[in-house]
Each structure stands twice: as C-alpha cells, then as structure tokens.
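Dear colleague,

Following up on yesterday's call, I've attached the two folding results inline so they're easy to grep. Please treat them as preliminary; we haven't cross-checked anything against experimental data yet. The first protein's sequence and structure tokens come first.
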Amino acid sequence: MHSPNTMKPGNKRHTYEWYVVVICILAYVFSFIDRQVLALMIEPIKRDLHLTDTQFSLLHGFAFSLFYAVMGMPIAYLADRFARPRIIAAGIALWSVATAACGLSQSFTHMFASRMSVGVGEAALSPGTYSMIADYFPKEKIGRAIGIYSLGSFIGGGIAFLVGGYVIALLKHASVFTLPLIGELRAWQLTFFIVGLPGLLVALVFVLTVRDPARKGLAQDGAGNVKRVAMSDALRFIASHRKTFFCHYIGFSFYAMGLYCLMGWTPAFYMRRFGLTPVETGYMLGIVMLVANTTGVFCGGWLNDWLLRRGRSDAPMRAAWIGAACMFVPAIAFTQTVSLGASLAWLVAAMFFASFPLPTSAAAMQALAPNQMRAQISAMFLLVSNLIGLGLGTTLVALVTDKVFGSPLAVGHSMAIINAVAIVLAAVLLYIGCSKYRASLEREAREARVTLDTPIATGAMPSGATTTA
C-alpha cells in the first residue's frame, strides 16, 4: 500500500475530485426534481389553469428547453473563461427560485415565464461540470466520472416522482393552503415550493466548497501566453468536423427525443390508460427510474469502457447506437399491451436502454474538443439536443394526441409513433457517426503529431489526440 508521498500519479485516489462529482450529482438531482415534478401533476395543473395537452407540453418541454438551449452558449462562454463553480452555483440558485415561482402561477403565461427561468438556471450546470471533470481527472477516468455524474438525472427524476407522489398523498385532504405574504395556494402549487427552495442550500455548499481546477492542455499564442478562444473558434472547430458533429448532435438529439417522450408522457399514459392515481403513478415510476435508468447509465458507461479497452476508438458512438437499436421494441410495446404488469416490464427495458447515451454523448465531446472549447461545444450540443429532444419531442406527442387522435386517452399511440420515428433516426445517424468520429480523432492525432516539435503548439494538443495514441 502506497503512502500519499510515494504514490505514483496514476494511482492518485482523487478523493477531493470525487467529492466534487458527488456535489455535482446532488445539484443534478435537484435540477431533475425541479424539471420533472411537473409531469406528475399534469391533471390538476391542466384543470386549474385550463390547459390542453399541447399547452401543457409547451410548459413541460418548449418553455424549459428554449432558454435552457439559448442561454447555454453565453453561459458556457463564461465557463470557459471564469471560475466555473461560481457560475454553476448562481445557476442552481436561479432555477431553485424559479421552481418555487412556478407555484405562484395563476395562468399559462405565468407558468411559461417561470419554466423559462428554470431553463436559464439549469443551463449553467452540465457544460461547466463536464469541463471541470475533464480537468480534474486523467483521461482514463473521465468517462467513468461523467457516467457517475449522469446518474444524477435519473436519480433526480425518480425522486421527483417519489417525492411528488408523497407530497400529493400528504396534501390530498386539503385543497387550499394559506401561506404568510403569499396567500392561498393549491396543493400542486405548494409542491413546487417544497421541491424548489432546498436547492438554495446546494448552491451555498457548491460556492463554499468547490474550487475551480487548473485547466489542462491550454493553447498558447506566439508570446507563450494562454490563448483566448472565442465562440467563433468553437464554431469553426465544429465546422471542421461537421460530419462527425452532425451525426453526434442530431443522432443523440433524436435519442433524447425518445427518452423525453417516456419521461414526459408516461405518467399521463398510466393515469389515463390504467386509471392509476397520481400517488400510485409517482411511486411506481419513481422506482422504475431509480432502478432501470440508473442501471442503464452505468451499463452504457461500462459498455463504452469495454469497447475502448478492445481498441474501439469510436466506443461512445458505438455504445449509443447499440442502445438505440435495443430500445426500439420496448419503447413501442409498453404502450400497446393491455396488461399493466406487461406494460411495466416493457417500460423497464425501454428506460434501461434509453439511458445509454447520457455518459457516452458527453464522453465523445470531451475526448475530441480542445480544452478552451469544451464547455461551449457541450452547450451547443445541449442547445440542439434540448430543442429537438425535449422541446419538439414532447410537443409532437401532444399535437398527435390533440390533432390526429382527438382524445387524451390516445396518448399511448402518440408516444409509440413519435418514439418509433425518433429511435430509428437515432440508431441510423449514430451508426454512420462511428466512422466519422474515428476519422475526426485520427485527424486530430495526426495534426498534433505534425506540430509536436513546435514549442508554441505543445500545449495546444487536442484532448482527443490522446484517445488514439
């Protein structure tokens, strides 16, 4: 056993670094609780605010994803230049207050504005976290760290359903509550306060205990100073690998569409199709997400590492298209069976495979992108992914339900149609993307070898070059 003074660098325990990952997971858990709890309260919110399925989908998906996506780029630009923990902590505080503000909503417009603010706050978390993880850990541990961080989304989603179900059960005997300075609130409005405000404590812990890691592999200018990279530089890098990023961004976005369709509309499906109460639905789906989705994230990361050990430099893309192909049948079958037990069995399989891309999509970007561009390139991906996956996907289900079938009871058929199209597109694009991704890694490694003898370029070696070394 090595003492701290004799331990080799490669054997470093990274105790503090893993503490930071845990804190980031905690923040991610709260972000998904605040984001996802809305889905469980669909029926009382629709009733009290007089909404259609399409309007509700705009609150759940489009309002959040629009500003989450649009604000992601400027926030990532700041994260590539300034202290990342402070930016992330400010985002946590903002989305926590905005979630509580959802509980004050008296109309569609009020709720829409609050959900946009939730999106702005959450846009600060993942790009900055991905960038910090890439600086905290050696390359062989980045995929594992990102995979563990990614667990936070489904832990948060599961807890959102469990806590939401518990709060609904706790408050079911009282329809109206009176709070000082606020006045009367319905049970669903009070729920937003209960799940939102504790996030302020997470923001405080984050800003007090997380330090910004030294940035690795920074490019230098002719005078030997760290080179400042503009957003236009990140866009040029994406353009130089346009085929790779097209397959990555769009392929993973359609994969996300399948996942968000499941997460956004499965509560309504079970309440309408099988007559479950919100409490029963919350407990059931909370357990499913905590078991199936978290296991799926772990197995997706494991498959990625297994493929890398066998020399597959395209492992993130390959693991993702395998997951998409396996997701196709269960994502459709769970809405078409007449038995609740059989439906749940198919749902567990669908949720498991739907979780594969969370660690793999991020690992692929961090391996290819230069340091100063990581947060911006991640934010660009989140922009595309959330607009297509969350904003468009959840709304398409509602539009098909309202305009094609004309009945809320047909939401299962709408989910099956959208999932079928999205998953096929995802699998095809990610499969094609494997060869494009390999070519991009080889090109970056080749360019790094050519410039290796030039002192100025020594610090500018792309992080992706080490992947194929």
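Below is the second protein, in the same order (sequence, then structure):
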Amino acid sequence: MSRRSSWTEALQLAWPATLSLLLQAGYRVNDQYWIGDLGADAQAAMGVTTFLLIFNFALIVIFQSGTLARVAFHTGAETLTEREALYRSTLWRGLAWFAVIAGLGWTWSPLATGMLGAQGAVAELSVEYLRPLYLGLPLMALKPFTDGVFLGLGNTLTPMRLALLSVGLNFGLNSVMIYGGYGIPAMGIAGAAWATVASRGLAGVLGLILIARKHGLHPTRASAAAQALPAAQVRRDFWRVVRIGLPVCFTNMAYALSFIAVLKTSVEPLGRDVQAGLGVAFNGIEAISYCALMGPAIACSSLVGRRLGARDGPGAREAVRACLSMSLLISGAFSLAFWLLPDVLASAYTDEIGVIREASLYLWVAAWSQTATAADCVLQQALAGAGRTFGMSLTTIAGLAIRVPLAFALAHSLDFGSEGIWWAFNLSNWIKLAAIILVFRRTRFWDLDPPAPPPTQTKRDASGPSSDRPPSVPARPSRP
C-alpha cells in the first residue's frame, strides 16, 4: 500500500479511537462531579479507588489486547472460520475469568483499601463504591472486550458510538441513583458504582449484538465450519490470546504500582499543593494529551495486525510510519501548549496560586517528553498488533520501575523538590523510548517468510503467529 493510503486509513481509525478514549475518562469525571455533595470523605474515597480500578483494567486487558491482535490477524488473512471459533472461545473463557476477579475483588475490597491508607469513613465509602463494581464486573468487562474485537475488525466508529451512548446514560443515571428519584432510593456513593455497571454493561451487550449482526460472529451459535475445527487448534489460538495479553496486563499493573510508589515516597512528603498540582496537571490536562496520542497508536495496532495477516509486511511497516508521524504531530502541538500556556491551562481547574504554580511546573517539564510518549505509544501498539508483547512489556516495566528511585533521588536526596519528580518522569519516558526502539528494530515483524505454496483444498490458518516469531500464513489460493 502507498503511504497516502496508510495515512488515510490511519486517520479514519485514529479519530474515533481518540474520542472513545476521551469518553472513557468520562465515567470518572461523572462520578467525581455527582458525588460532590456527599462530602470530602466521598471525594477521598474516589481517589483511593483509582489505582484499584487500574488493576481491574489490567486483568481485563489480557483478553482485550490478545483478542484485538488475533482477530486482526485472522481478518487480514481471511481465515474467517478460525476467527469465529476464536471469538466464541475467548468470550466464554473471558467471562469465566471476569467472574473470578469479581469474587476476589468483592472479598478483598476492605483489605485492599486499607493497604492504600484509607481509614474510617473513607475506607467504608471506598468499599461501598468498589463492591457494586466488582459484582457487575463480568458485565462491564464486555465493553473493553467488544472494543478489542471491533478494533481487530478495523472498526473504531462503533466503539466510539457505544462509548458516547454509555457515558451519556451514566451521566443521567448518576444523579438518580446517588440521590434518589423516580421511585429509586438514594444509594449514595454506591449509586455511582451501580450507574457505571448499568451504563457500561448495556454498551457491552449492545456490542455483542452489533458484532453478531454486522460481522456474523455469534456468542452462542456456531457455523458448521467452526464446529468442524479441531478442538486442539481452537485451544491453541485461545492461548495465543493469553500469551499476547499477559505482558500487557503486567505493564498496566506496573504502571499503577510505580505511580503509587512515587506518590507515597516522593510526592506525599512535599505537601498538599504538590499533590493537588499533580492531580490537576496529570488527570485534568495531560490525560487529554495522552488520549490524543493514543488514538493513532490504537489505529496502528489494528492496521499492523490485519496487514500481517494479509502477508503485507511492507504495508505493516508503512502503517507504523504513518501512525508515528500523526502522533508526533499531535504531540508537538501539545508540547507548544504546555510550554506557552501552562498557567492558563492549570487555572481552568483551580484558582489556588500554589496549586496553579505546581501544575504549571509539571506541564512545562512534561512538554519536553510529549514526543517521547507519542513514539513510545505507537511502537508499543505496533508490537501488540503483531502479537509481540513480551519484549515490549519488559522494557516498559523496567522504565516504570526506574521512576521510583529516580524521583526520590532528584526530589529529596538532591533537593530539587517537585521539579525533580517531574524530571524523573521525563527521563524515564526517554529511557523507555530508547529501549522500545531497540526491541522494535530487533523484532522486525514486517520481515515475513516467503509465501508457502497455495493449499489444495481450503485456506486456513492452522497455527497463526507465535508470540516470538513473525506471523506467517499460507498464500491465498487463486479465485475463479
């Protein structure tokens, strides 16, 4: 494919993916907004649960990332029977896994919130918020799972529309379920959780229905060809999903753990203004930049997976270049905004001078690594789309681990204060990028084996790509 066609397809995939990511942040924004009248303890409980919810997503992303890569591969290879069998087996095994997480989360919520420092009323409200989310987790997990399927199929518009519907419904349900109305009793902070379960669960179920209607992938009804596939082959394909998804899971866990460690060891001793400034800059401003950078990255994972399935190695590499160029252009715009307008951006969230000063300092420093974050995201997603996640995960986890001692050393040992923490984030981002470039160049997933002779009877992918070899499929038979 030409570079222009790669740019066009990347753009068509990237903008809905970006909007979907921004909408995903809307659930937390909705909850944070509507529980305001419940008091400071409820607000603190929301903060305590943030990183536990990141852990939840890490356990769900095993199936989202792996399914995206394998569905994209089968779509590009046109091995549609294998794609159907993979979809059904992964869906039902995934639901069983989500049920296990739900049971463990319900049981361990009090212990987990206590380990994060919640006490008294804050601890009680944290558990009150978490337990409905764990009860409804199998239903809520359908949304990211179906998003992965749609992305593997090259469809980013449908997940965006479902996210828009879900976040809008969540906004309306929150007020009713938290404070009561229309015959529904007031449930307080637990009402916010139930509103999330209902809105995200509905989007997940609708996703299953649309996948069945638009793409012929039914959760309960298998075609005769899919039923005829050997069970061992279907199991092998499912375990490829797990092998691709597990490193991504560990990476998300490492992100949460490293951030908690920096907060505890380096940020907390510097006081309230630094904590609040980090919250404003990181959650309120840089999160928008990250969503914009991740849109082209997600497009890259879908393009790479489908083009490798179609044995178009040069096209896969061209897709990486197009998505990387797009993400770097976006990062340049955000870098300029963070350099030139940090005070203006920070003051949109608060009027406290100390908080604005710390948030502005964070943004000015973060401007120096927006391009590194953009390139890192695209290369990671390219490797994920190719099913090559192990090396990517190791380098990312190592880069995140470096942040903890580096932040403490710069902030406290060398007495640079909060600026030292923000520069530690920057330096670790550049270190991660250097490592991921080495992994990417070493992997060379676009160098495919020579085509095999055409099969005589049927075109099936009996094995698919392993997690440590470039994918290779039989050449397409000629069509009458």
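For the second protein, one point worth flagging: Residues 3-443 form one domain.

Best wishes,
A.L.
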